[in-house]
Structure of ABC transporter permease:
Amino acid sequence: MNNGMLKNYLRLAIRNMWKNKVVSTTNILGLTIGISCSLLLLLYVKYERSFDKSITDREKIYFQVFEQLGNNARVVGLSGEEDYQDLKNNYSGIADVVKIRNNSYSIMPQGNENRKVSVDSWFSSANFFEFFGFPLIEGDPTTVLNDPSAIVLTESTARKLFGNANAMGKTVTIRVSSFDKELVVKGIAQDVENTHIPFEAIIPWEMTDSRGRSIPHMWYQASLYTYIKLADGYPIDLIRQSRNAKIAEEDPEHADMYRFDYVPLTDMYLGTSHVQFMAFESGNINIVNTLLFIAITVLLVACINHVNLQTAKGSKRALEVGVRKVMGAHRKQLIYQFLGESVVVTTMAAALAVLVIDIVLPSFNQLSGKSFTTGSLIEVGLFPLLIIITLLTAFFSGVYPALVLSSFQPSRVLKISANANLKGTKARKVLIFFQFAISLFLIAVTAIAYQQTRYINSKELGFNKDQVLTFSISTKNLSGKLRAFQAELERNPGVLSTSASTDILGLGYTNNSGEFYPKSNPEQSIRTTLFGVDHDFLDTYQIEVIEGRNFDRTLSSDSMALIVNETFVSQLGGTNPLNEKVALFNAQNEGLPIIGVVKDFHFQKLHQEISPVAFRIAPWNIWNLSVLVDKERIAETLSFLETKWNEFEPEEAFTYSFVDQKFERFYESEMRLLKAITVFSIISIALTALGLFGMVTFVIERKTKEIGIRKVLGASVLQINSIIFREFLLLLIIAAVVASPLIIWAGQDWLSQFAYRIDFGIAPIFLAVLLTLVVISLTVGLQSIKAAQQDPVKSLRNE
């Protein structure tokens, strides 16, 4: 194909677009919407799937999890120091092991309180940078954490602390609970995005307090995170088998209740939503897959519109094809011409799509929870992906019309009416059917997601999450002054109650859990979540005691007593739990009496069934304060709380959060998914309506003479409208029948991740059919009514 031929095809394409302005505008608008939406969604999917790609040897790295089987089975991400030592010393197939644990600390340049910042810090064994391969701008990855008084800052953290000055060798003060620790900056790490370990500072595991004790060893000996790196060619199955065989050997009676497993590093971001006690950056594979499906769907609907409109106007171009074939044009040349027209239209749409993306990017960021910029999208691969989408769209939306239009026979098309329908009617109906089925599916799934979201937002949790605010009290100046601080707060009429505890409600987990053994049946065990609380916890959260009593501050014996929930009692068995004693963690330990039973409550997501819970008076590790505030005095009480905080803790800023806001964050991914499905369902329906508009226009053009004759014979506007409408109505009915099983399957599959969920019935399907019917009625009705109101004399004269 020479340049002259290409120029001729381009000239013909532009001339044809100009002659058919309505069709061309409809095509370009539909493809612009389809390309821009699909491109944004695909970039999001690509970004989510790019996590941890920068980690070297990532295919050899695995994360250890601990599976508890049987009743209340769960997978726990935490492991212990003994696991780390065992993996490090006893398996030839393991090339390296690293342990890490996170915390957030206030860090400042030595003696400079004005530059104090809160930093997401991680304790780690000395091989952190060598193990993961995170790049260091300054410092040796093999030795940078060997000194217990060292710290490695990311480039952005160093800039916050020291501005443009070089931070290497400088001393920072890290505020650890009740004391300050001086550390020397021994390394500067490059800021790494797209990693499930969102570190801003790395601190050696051997860091000590003022008495020489290792802080992480004291706090995290039984709750650290362990990774292993396999030797070349060594399968992870052998490590898994060896570790689980050791469990069976050491504790044969409970060997069927526990087992170790290993998660590939490549699955850490998107594949660990089921693992509890995780402190990593994580995504949602359901959202990623759903948005990928929607991206393909929206682009498919736009392509279907293009195909329908191109083949529908085929009869208009039949004469052109016939004349060109008589003049010697080959079918191959005609295919090139029509494909070229598709490329021109798609290229114009792609150019407009870039402009649309730039305009809607802030709204997309709000929808996705990301902070994309045009620059970051270019880094992710905006233009290569745009080129790929443009070429694929041009081909798939242009190849069928090209084959259909180029197949017209001159002997036929030169004889028949220009308004005759030559080819493609059945194919167009099939494509419209697919559009209807897609729209029905998206609308129905949106309705199901909306119903479930309303359910989880309105379900009674079994405790009061409103007007309860929480904040950390594990600071240097509050140590030893907690009761005095609480007493000051409780004097204010806006403070209804306060409670100090190890854990709070709203996080979805606690820092303590384990086996509880009834003294009446030591062979039985109840896997239980343990809350360390004070005497006012149940009152502050308004958790209902349904049997027995609450903790009593005047009874010293309550410090060694338990209050449990209904699920604990049901697994305990028997008829009177108040006569029972249970041992914590080991059946040989002294039994603690149960003094009360509370009504079951949801402190975890509704994805999980209510598990056994026990409360005990916390003997140590009181880290959090919960405050129940009078809803009529929230603003003034918050101001009072901040004033009192500054009196007792002048060195730390007062930061708090409400429990109901914490619970809302439980369902951020579900809310984003609902919003995304809703937005792109509307876009898909709009594209369907746009395609219908073009199709109805051509149907009416072909039926101009028929409409005129019917009007002359006395047909009403309604009767004429029904002629056009019934064809689309039949397609909708067929689409509803085909889509319904898919809707039911998809709805049940999505709801299966919730332990507590709705029964959606046929209402979402009915709603989807109704809304699609409205769209069809408006699109078809307005066009056909307009055609029916035309003067029949003009219609017949035009024929």
